[in-house]
Structures are given as structure tokens and as C-alpha cells.
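Why does residue order matter? Because the sequence determines the fold. Keep that principle in mind as you read this record.
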Amino acid sequence: MNKLTKVTATALFALFLTACDKAADKTANTAKPETTQQAETAKPTEAAPVMSAEAQEKADYDKLIAWNQEQGAVQAQNQQKLQQELTAAAEAKDENKAKAAIEEFNKNVQASIASLDALDVKSDLIGSAKNQTKEVLTLAGQLLIAQANVKTEADQKAYAEKAAELQNKMQSLAELGAKIEAKFNPAPVQPTAPNAEQPAQTPATK
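Structure:
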């Protein structure tokens, strides 16, 4: 029964590898009020201005950061609830309750994946982060269910292979997240201190 409590941290941890924990500064978008359409003075619909590649990438980055923060808070609550239910199931020695709790948690993970799919991301860099995040969450959900059903050595082997695959995907996502973070929130450059021990130059003799 104790095995069932270990993988939950993996599913939650996957949610925090998208980009960074620091919120990006967001530009306030003010909604324009709808005007009554008049046939006599109807104007042609103006096309939305085309964003530059850099602006699109930054906008997509902000979307993913906002999603990450929202889902992180939601899944933290789900994680706490799952941990309580697993502890109660372990004390009652009720494996069915433990499985039911895991299945319910996995539904929440699937809801997070659905909300991730709904993000309209156009840039390649952030799109790659979005896709890798989905892969990690999907595999984490599968692993969560699989661990509850490990009964034979073959099951254990298959589970270990999935766990290794998840670890590799999480590492790749973490590296991509670090790359994105460095691009949008680079570390400040520290000024180089003068070398106090540098000997004074001897004036040239004529």
C-alpha cells in the first residue's frame, strides 16, 4: 500500500517544470466595447495587427506561465486530498479505496491536460514546451494508474520502463524550461570588480 503514495509526487512535480515559478509581467488587455452595428455607417472589419515573432513568443510564454500557476495551485489541493485519502485507505487496509482515490486524482490530471490543449500557442519554442508538458503529464497519469495495478514481475518491469521514460521526459522538459527562462528572464550581469592587487605600471623610461 505504501508504494501507492510515492508516485503522487511525480504527477504533481511534472506540473511545475513548464517554465518558471516567477510570474512574467503581463500587459493589461482592455476589452473594447461592442458598438451597435448600423447598416448605413457600417465599417469593414479591421484585421488584427500581425504580431512580430518575438512578440508572439512572449505572448505565448505569458499564457503558459499563467496556466502553470493556475494548475499548480489546483493540483496542490488535489495532491493534498489524494494524500489524505491514501493515508486513510492504508490505515483501513482497503486497496479499493486507494485505487479509487488514484483514479479520481488522475481525472484531475486529465482535466489539466485538456486545459493545456486549449491554450492557443503559435510560436515554435513555447509550442514545444506545451507539447512536452502534455507528454509528461500524460505519462505521469499512466504511471499513476499502472503502479496501482502492479501484480507480477512483468508488470513491475513494464512499470520500471515507464518510470525511466517519464524521468527522461521530465529532464528534457526541465532543460527546455531553463532555456526559456534564460531567454525571457536572464540573470543580471554582475559588474566585474577591479583587481586591487594589480601592480601599478612603471612609467616608461626615456
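The longest helix spans residues 53-92.
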